[in-house]
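Q: Convert this sequence to structure tokens.
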Amino acid sequence: MALTYKSRRRWALLLLLIGLPLYIVASVTIMNWLGRPPIWVEFAVYVALGILWALPFKAIFKGVGQADPDAPQDPQ
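A:
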């Protein structure tokens, strides 16, 4: 079932306002469990986790910043 433009915008907002901060807290907690790795390992882990969180939600974020394709067009 495909999501409408309006529902994708709502899900994207929910993910950015609630899901992303929770993911950041989880990522920092995981890094604290590892102790103090070398700075390049820490950087690589943060970059990987930063990219990894968005991959499952790619379909939700796609086209959200564009105009609503389902909205009626104004004849000019």
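The chain has a mean pLDDT of 83.
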